[in-house]
Structure formats: structure tokens, C-alpha cells
Amino acid sequence: MDASVAGSRGSPALRFLCPKISLLSPPSHSLLRWLVGAPRVLPPFTVAAVLRPTHGDHVAPDLPREADEIRGLLPRGFDIIGALLVGGGGSDADVTRALEHARALRELLFGVATSHGLVGGHMDAATGDIRFVVSESAGTDSVEGSVVTWEDEPGRLLWEKGCLLRCELPLKLPLYLRPDVNSGIEEQFSSLIEYTVAKLRDRHVSYLVEGPITSSESHLSIILRGDDLSFDSHTHGNSRTNNCTTSIVSCSEFFTEKRHNLSLTREDADAIAITVNQSASSLKPGTTPVVEYFPASAPASLRVIILKLDILCYTSIDFSVAAAVSELVIPGLADQMIVMKRIIASEITEQVQLCPFHFIPSGLHVPVTAIYNTRYGEIEERQSELRKELHIRLGLPLDRPLLRISNALTFGGTGKRKKSMPRSGSSLLQDVHRKIPSSGVSGGVMSLIDGSYEYYHYLHDGIDDNGWGCAYRSLQTIVSWYRLQQYSSIDVPSHREIQQVLVEIGDKDSSFIGSCEWIGAIELSFVLDKLLGVSCKVINVRSGDELPEKCRELARHFETEGTPVMIGGGVLAYTLIGVDYNEANGDCAFLILDPHYTGTDDLGKIVNGGWCGWKKSVDNKGRSFFLKDKFYNLLLPQRPDMV
Q1: Residues 6 or more apart from 279 whose CB is under 8 A from it?
Q2: What is the pLDDT of residues 629-639, one digit of tens each?
Q3: What's the predicted TM-score (pTM) here?
Q4: 394, HSE (Cβ side, Cα atoms, 13 Å)
């Protein structure tokens, strides 16, 4: 049932673009949930994302701290549209309290009362039922709603109706510090930021607006000047005439194709690019550059604060670009400066290097921005704690690195800039098991690898390892999994580099380097520990006949750890990426990725030739895949517990 239709019948409707599970888990110390929407773009009371408070509790959240952090996290265009209490009694007081919390947080974020309706509600944690009320804009009265819907295609609604704008702006701000550097820094910094924001609306400042480049059509670009930003923001682009000026060009004109799901473009996200130009060349004819002089009121030292601003904004595709720059981009730049000011002011004696990164982690449909201090890198303890807090706020698992710098969105080229290559930079086949037919196990439960991997096999990279390199190739596939899941940024090691590691740790002597000697599961565990800090579990079986007995344990591994498994011993090595197991009768099959393939990376040949496919211990013709008279070692790499 469509929420907007239900709402038109008189009863307020609440629509969720996020799954119900995102409201319930993972558990956090607070039962309160902030509801995020985009009132300018989406239908009323449409929830695009859910945030968890990380300061205070559901009775008394620390709203000023919540506002400070959410201001830097959410792109302008997304807004707090309500709050929901999960669990508890669900009394009228609970619902009212949630509504009041939402109203107070929203006013702290934007400094003014809301101009759109707000939701307050309660969700029964056991049944998932939601009771809610809505309050119209600037009103205190509330009306109880009755219809709740869950959208099946949230990306389609978000990106058919809306689009992203991105603005990067490097700044050098002069901050004059008195001898007592701790005195009045925030006040000085605040004044400097207010001055800088005012300058962004100066009539001499120009904004170059460019659409994403496409392979088939030329891109659109326009220049907006400060004078264009006085355009009436409530007039949408669809009211323009053929003789339009740049001030009424709508955002839709910068996209030649519909964007149904932003997750399809994570490594090459599409956004309208905004470039700020304050140079003398941007001045209108007849004007004269002005030099401003600011005398110091007392002895002071000059500290140049370097800021690298990088913001995203979300707006309707029908909204005019000039209005979007005025109402979203400039306030968004101001928001990010305020967030950075607080970080810098608390560490004014340190050379902080703040850099914003944008993410759309799995399970989230809206982009979020995190500001990291890159001076000490990602391994720095405070950086790890910051990521953990963000995971909690966004309801993300605490054992997946979803907000590391390597996970950040990359954006395609605009204008004359070259379109960026995917982060992996690899031409290897990935996830070749996706098109594999069923295993043939009746009533079985499939347990598969969690995430992506690359298929390494004989003769790849021009290395002739036919007959001896299968375990090396399995190891390379395993390392690629850790790379693609962002647990590591090291390159997948070559055969020689693998051998060098084993020599360095004392497992092999120096003559091993450059040889064609086999390695097995134990050597792989040594290399994974040395290169990635990954621990491994080893299962030993005396005969291939015993492998089906390990299916329950392997299924548990794929369900909890999700990493590729190396099967060694015997005479060959394989990579195991799933099992299909019928617990009632013991029937099972193994999804084998075979590194012994010597052909080209042709997915059809690989699948049709059985180089990646389901294998039974004994097939219907009585042939054994695993040898009865050989032992096998199964190497189960563990997933690091990290964010």
C-alpha cells in the first residue's frame, strides 16, 4: 500500500525506506531512534534513514552534542523528521516525549523552528508494530497516524526524485593568537568563519557548476555569480521559459540518465560538482580588486588554518541550481567549518589534518560524511574510537570495516577532469560463483562466502605455476577477500613475496625463494598472520571420505566468519567458498573455486567447465572428488574484530 495514497484519505501515513531490522538491531545503549528524511524531495513523513543517539539516553539525550555530531554527518537536504522509541511501554507519554526530542534536536541543528511536519512514535520490539503521531509545521498539536509502509525499492524513490551536489573548497584562514593561546580561540575562530561564509555570498564570487561526464554525451556546465544567488528559492526549474538565465537552470539538466540506485555507483558516484572561484579573474568587468586590512588589537602571532572542505548536498532534481547553491551548498560549507572549528580549537597546538570522506555503507541508502584527522593514519586509537561511535550511530556491525578511508565514495570526473578508475584497479574476475546453478542437494541450506573475492588461478600474471602453484593461488584469492572487504590495503602478494615471508619468519631456508616447491595450509596460515595479522583455524581430516562430516562446522564458519576456506593436503589445493548441507540426512555439496584452471578469464568457460561449481564428495556416478587415501587440511581464516 502506498503511504501517500493512505495519507490522502485523512489518516497520516509513515513510510520507511530502510528495513525494519535497522530500527531494532544491533542493540545500543539507547532505545531512541532519530528519523531522517528529506522533506524538500520525498513525500511527507518518509524516513530515509535511522540514527541512534550516542550521548545521553532515551529519557534525557544530550541534544547539544547530538546536534553537533549530526550536523557534520548528514548532508544538507536531509533533515530530522522525527524520533521513535523502541521497546518499553509505548504509553502516550513515550510518544509525546519522542516528538518533543525530535523538535528540540531539529531546532538545535538549524537554529529555527521546523518548517515541516514531525513524527513521534513508539515501536514494539517484539512485534515490530509502530504507534505514531504527527505534528504539522510550527504546530504543537499532534494527530495520531495509523498507516506504516516499508518501501521495497528505497533507492529508486531517493534517486529518481533527487540528486547529489558536491563542493570541494580548500581554504587558508588567518587566525591571530594572543600569547595565551587558550584564550578566546573559539570566539575568534567563529568570527572568522562567519566572515568567510558571508564572503561566499559576495557578488564577486563565482560558482562553476558541472554535471557528471558521460561516455555518450557532452556535459553541461554553467557559471553562477553572487548576484544569481538572490533567486527566489521556492520557484522550481520546471517553471522556466526557453530564454532562461543560469539562475533558473534545474539540477535535472545536469544528468542525461536516470539514477535508480546510488549503490550502483559507489566507486564512481554521480554528483553535480560545484567549484568556488574567488580569483580576480572572476570579477565582473569594471570592478577593482580590494585588499582588506585587519589590524591586531594586541600582540599576536599568525596561525594559518588550512581547511579542506568537501560537502555533499541532496536536492530535488527539479530544484534550481542557484537555489541549491544558496540554500544547501553555502550552509553546508558553513556547517562543515563549524564542525572543523571545534576539532581544531580543542587541539590548536597540534597540526591537525582534517579531511572529510563520504560513505554509503551497506544497508544504508543515504550518504554520510565523516571528518578524519589523517595526520596519524587510520591505525591511530582515536580514529578507531571515532569509527566505532559512527558504527553505533548508524546501526552498523562492529566487526566490519565499513567506514575506513578505503571505503569512501569516489566520484566520476566532471568537466575536463579524467574519470577516476575503480579503487581496486584490478581486471581480475570477481565473485565467479554468482551464476553457478544449484548444488543438487535436496532440502539443503546454502552457507556461502560473505563478500567479494578475486579469482586467482594457474598462469595468471604471466607466471607459469602449472603443477605447483595451486596453494599460492588459493592464498591470493583469500588475501583479495580481505582487500575487497577493506580489512587490508596491501597488494595481493606474488609467489616470490609469499616465499620471502616464509623465509623471513624462519619456516623455510633461503633456497626456497624462487623455487617451485609446494606449500600447504600451515604455510598459508603463517603468511596470513604475518601480512594481515589474521588468525586461522585448521581442521584435519584423515581421508577425503571424512570431509562431509565437517559440513556442519564449515556451514557455521561461512555464517559467522564468511571468509574463503583453503582445502590443502592430499595432492591438490582448492578454495572453498560455500557448502550446501541437509542436516537431516547429511547430504551435502561443496562449492569449489578451482585454482588449476589455465585458460583466459572467460566466465562462461570457467562455469561451464566446472572450474567453479558444486562438488559432491561422491557424485551420482560413484566418482570421488576428494580422495579416500589422502589426508586433508582445511584452513579457516578468521574475520578480524575491527571497524
Answers
A1: none
A2: 889 999 999 99
A3: 0.78
A4: 28
Q: Is 184 left (phi over 0), alpha (psi -120 to 50) or beta?
A: left
What is the H or E stretch that residue 342 is in? helix 330-346
Question: Residue 512: what residue type?
Answer: F
- DSSP at 424: T
**Domain 3-152: assigned CATH number:** 3.40.140
Among 510, 507, 479, smallest CA distance to 493 is for: 479
Q: Which residue, 215, 256, 224, is CA-closest to 418?
A: 215
- Beta 130-135 vs 118-123: how paired, if at all? antiparallel
CA-based radius of gyration for the chain: 29
310: number of Cβ within 10 Å:
19
**Cell numbers found for residue 277:** 572561484
Under a CB-based contact definition with an 8 Å cutoff, are residues 33 and 404 in contact? no
Active site residues: 470, 594, 596
End-to-end Cα, the chain, rounded Å: 38
Angle at 477 between CA 473 and CA 482, to 5 degrees: 145
The conformation of residue 460, written as its DSSP 8-state character, comes to G
The CA distance from 329 to 322, in Å, is: 10
Q: What kind of fold does domain 432-637 have according to CATH?
A: Cathepsin B; Chain A (3.90.70)
Instruction: Map residue 250 onto helix, strand or coil.
Output: strand
Question: Which H or E element spans position 113?
Answer: none
Residues 433, 615: Cα–Cα separation, whole Å: 13
Contact, 21 vs 33, CB < 8 A? no
| 522-576: pLDDT as tens digits | 999 999 999 999 999 999 999 999 999 999 999 999 999 999 999 997 778 999 9
CA distance 11 to 523: 65
Q: What is the DSSP string of 233-258?
A: TTS-GGG--TT--GGG-BGGGG-SS-
Do the beta carbons of residue 636 and residue 562 sit within 8 Å?
no
Beta-carbon contacts of residue 294 (< 8 Å; ≥ 6 apart): none
Residue 417: count of CB within 10 angstroms of its CB: 12
For the chain, the domains span: 3-152, 160-282+296-347, 432-637
